[in-house]
């Protein structure tokens, strides 16, 4: 290994392009004494060296491996450097596919021509290398990268961890903002209340005394007295330091002052167009931090680049970036003076530094080394963006929640504010690189607050910009490691590979920077495994040692895969959802492309009444109030469907559900209001209460029934329409008849002083008045006593009715929830002007019924007429029933209000929650616990509401946005408040709502670890998808060329397919179905087709046999009243014709191509009784096969059932078939050679 490393160092002695580095590595890999080197040698076609662990077995029928010899030919025109660099990357992918884990190296890689998918992979890698190459970045030579490897550390964000330096005043001042641009705002002015309260009271942030450190940490100021004096003077001029009396310094439990240190880390800044080294001033507050608890600020809202890799982009879209960056954001905001005693530095300064006595200095701005600095600064910037610049919080990208569902995103990371806009490319051109309104508002706020921005880093409507350490190319739809960091990582990895002795320090440097790059393409994380063990080993012995060969392989694979450390934002969303599983014995897979229908619903034909089966296509259709999907022809059928106490033809699967209910009292004979409400849906209607339905409230039965209806717990609204004849103010007035005569009107029964009726009325009239009063009082008392706000109540009477003067009405009118809706029936389709008033507490009713009458023309007269017997006819009595439009408006108002209340949705949620509670009670112990079970059930119900058919793609996009901030998986949580702290509990995903189809079920050929088997199950599924597509294309080609399926080895594909798919035998056709199909055929004028269906069923004809028949194959026997069907060729006749005798004279040869070969034998078994006779008639060559067909088919038919729509269709067309004999009598005479005659015996 040391010799190989020496050769590699010599190769990397000078600066090279990324492609050149990879091309050289490919040339050197074949001599690498490791497993990766042996594999590279085999890939090049040279075979593995003697003694190497190898195997002659190699999988060569997948996407990988790609034959690298073919790659060289494919990229011949691109040049050797490009071909070799691409081969180097592909070699790594081949190795991971074939030799990961403990799999041996193939002895020889078989030659294999490139497939189209493999060519796409090659082109993808070539384009990735070209993108890096075109950036102009170069990989530094070994010596320079070796220095960086030994001297600098890198964190997991890919940023260097720099060692603290002594302060150099000139370099520190150069990095600071100019005078007047620091400490310009109070931090508390931009903080939410809970953070502001903490910041105003430092003592609330101190740890309990028993948690204070027993020994205060020590930190020093890294500067000479002279340099420190210069730093303090410059800081004081900028407002960054203020004096602190030594007596005010915070002291520990022993009374010892707690003093802090200071230092600097290197920072490069462009000054005057030149890059210059400066120093970033760092307050080392380790001593002070040891006594504090971190403020719970907004650092939890920091974004994570793993989320940004989930961005979506269509091919005709582009991402634009608007970016602003503060100048020294930590130095812009001042913390309260109460914190000064905790922030004192450990070095005194002379009085001349700030024009006062000698003393300690304190950093009044937010110190970068403070425990809570990140939490506070993130909260300040978020407040500036969301509260002051009025940017919508819903657009924020944060690891606390899913990606926003919009094309406008906001990314806030301490000192930077980035705005992402997804636009159509045409819109982007129209914008002409103008900044957004949000961006402009933010700039205005910063100017008003005097907050300086770094204009050199500003981006406006840019399609290319840095974001979270990565590079976003909005045109290409690519987000990945920036080219300069790619080149740097390649140099770092190539330098480490050339060192013969590795330390923990060096390994951690590489891993820190590599893991950052892998975040842009997380599958690359699988490369690193042994390196972590190597780090632990080096840390345990604290020395340098030669690395293991496997670790060298991992480092080199990282080097090879750097060019593909990016994510394509234009990757398409798959329409097929797949699930795989594995056990020690076998694996399987299922797929889904759509959701199941809503739970507990029926597949009902809306044109057919689900209860009685009558045709309702030309009439109003009543929906099931529980929304089970059934439709009905009448309110009676709806009630029968929902009645739990009596059987229904189509029982409602949601009978246990209790939708909100409406009740109508004194409805009239046709109860139009109840019908209108029922037609709206989502409201269940009680049986109307009226004398016409045998319900008299003045009888014991009527009173008990009315009380039962009113006591219904699910009743949410009721309408009362008590009798109004005896409440008219017109009683007693003279009536002018049509002939001009004036007669006395009906006797008055009440007035304003005698609202309950005159005491001198005759006994009979007084009884009628008393009954009318009782009806009205019953309705009004119900309005007074009804349980609100859970129920609504309305009552209706003519506008000038004496009822409105009742005391109960006046009391209700004083309540704010009650109001009148006054209108005329002529505004709702009535034929006369007749004014009414609906009174109640239904808020939406007035806007539907209170319509100003414009004065309609052509209305009928209200003239009273007199019959011959002297009785009077009042035209208004003819309109005692509400006009239909008025009923529909009332129903619409009620539905609108209940929807606003969420009554129906709340009922559905409660029922579904009850279902999930029962299911979770039988789940794991964690989910079965009461508080967890209730919270999880409620969350599942909310999620289920979004899983609607036709919304599958939107749901998949939502899942993508909901991926964890690492960008690897989707997890759902529910938060429970406990006594100690909130607990997060995972919520199961509702996979049961997908309509799954099992596509794979297979046993394992070899045992393996369950983790490997799980991954293998995924691989089998992916392979199946590719195989299905290729096989379909290949068979299609063979078919078009007229070749047999076994040609060119396709029989092997067919055998593979047979191993993957479990055959499912078709359900045998029943005679009911054949009757229905024949009726439909006759209805469409396809008489020959209909009769051929019967012929095929009767004779057990195979599809091919039916297709081969012509009228010449039917021979009649007039004397015997039968016919023979001659089958020219059959599957079981070895090419010889077969003859079948049909005793039914009506069967004629017809054509059909959709019935399975064994259709109809179930019917024949019932006809001929014996299995042997069935075998003979079906011409099976093997009794065993026949019995298998018969047994399985009989079992299938026993469990088969028609849905309501299917049952209706079959019956409808079967009934049509019964009319065919009558129609046949007028048919034209059939040709002599056609077996068409009377249909009586055949259809009878």
TrEMBL record:
InterPro entries: DNA_brk_join_enz, Integrase-like_cat_sf. Keywords: DNA recombination. One of its GO terms (molecular function) is DNA binding. One of its GO terms (biological process) is DNA integration. It comes from the Eukaryota. Signal peptide: none annotated. This is CS domain-containing protein. It comes from Cladocopium goreaui.
